[in-house]
Amino acid sequence: MSDGRRLRSALAVSLVALGACAHSEPFQPDEAAPRGPSSTTIPRQLSFNPGDDRAPSVNAGTVAYSRYDPARTPAARCVALLPPDGGSLIGLHCPPKPTPADTFVSTWLEPAIAGDGQRVAFVWQRGARTSALGAWTHELAVAPRDSLRHPALRLLLGAPRADGRLFNTATKLGWTDDRTVRFIAAFDWIFKVKGGGTARLTDTVLVGLALFDLDVPTASLRQVPGGDSVYAWAADPAGPLYVIKDADSTTVHALAADGSLTAMAAFPAPVTDLAVIDRRLVAATGTGSLWWRDPVSGASGMLLARGPVHRVAPAGERRLIAEVERSVELFGAPANLWLLELPAR
Question: Which element (helix H / strand E) includes 20?
């Protein structure tokens, strides 16, 4: 994809002139100084990418997210790092470009920084082109924060589970300790929506199948007991693991180590993602409304966003980061990241 900003110029100079002047690299722009947050108000827009920013996670004082920049050639998602209060990017890492030996386009999704701040887990997707709906391979990768192109671990996904169901990708990655990455094992499903006449719209959706743990040192996978059919999860650092299951998409359950479930809270709409902020459960519902509930006191409330929200991440104290789509469309619209805050207790 062309970014439409190709530079065309013609230089007419003599050999005498070239030999007489010393010059630096032409057209080298001055590097902009780092900028702080755009404002001090909340809600606050954190990312201003004209493309699409998705899947935020926060750890080690850094926001990691998947960033699509339409100006990049070839177009692919990169991993971007941002301060949790906003400001200039503190890191932008992009996949290698195709080569004659490997013509596949790589895309990086679902990044999560480890608690030590030095490693990033993410999904490395490879396909014939980014416009294709189906990717060829998905791998779980763990790499040094400053060298994502050279992972210490690349684990190919695609093996069938014991029940015969296949998961070929992963979503909602998060580190539970210094060696374990928890994620939703999912299936990348392509479907067609047929309208009247000859209209036909095609899209892809991730179908969550189960909650899994990756042990990084041994590269081994283990399904979390009781994690079957889980499609959203959130951990309270001082409390239980919370999950949402297909069978009841409006109810949050606490999942015990032995796999038993205890219903903790119900929301008025199906939940797309879940976070624990200030010991309160916060649910995204794919709309402009975020619902929160205290599982102990039962207190509840609602936050409003500037557009549909599908993913949320805790950002310390009463704060959360949400991917907020810029408009309401049938198959979703590009998103930016916003900082929101729960009311004080």
Answer: helix 15-20
- State the burial class of residue 45 (Cβ atoms within 10 Å of its Cβ: 0-12, 13-18, 19+): middle
Q: What is the pLDDT of residues 273-315, one digit of tens each?
A: 999 999 999 999 999 999 999 999 999 999 999 999 999 999 9
Q: Contact 66/78 with Cβ under 8 angstroms?
A: yes
In the DSSP assignment, the letter for residue 69 is: -
> Which of 185, 82, 66, 64 is CA-nearest to residue 119?
64
3-class DSSP state of 242: strand
Residues near 120 by beta carbon (within 8 Å), at least 6 away in sequence: 64, 79, 111, 112, 113, 114, 142, 143, 144, 145, 148
Domains within the chain, CATH numbers bracketed = 54-228 (no CATH), 235-345 (2.130.10.10)
DSSP strand pairing (248-255 vs 44-45): unpaired
